[in-house]
Amino acid sequence: MTMIRQTRIFAPHEGLFAHQLWAETVIGCIIKPVVTKFHDALEWHWFTRYIQPTDGDMDDCIFEQIPQTFVDPHNGIHKSIRFRYAVKDDTCATFEEECWQLIDNAGCAISDFRTFPILEDLGGDRHLEEPRTLERREKRAQLVVEFYHSIAELILDALIGPDVEGHFSLPHHQANPAQETPFHAFHHVFCNASDVPLYVSAIHNIPGNMQNRPRQEVQYYRVKF
Question: Three-class SS string for 36-90?
Answer without folding.
Answer: HHCHHHEEEEEEEEEEEECCCCCCCCCHHHCCHHHCCCCCCEEEEEEEEEEEECC
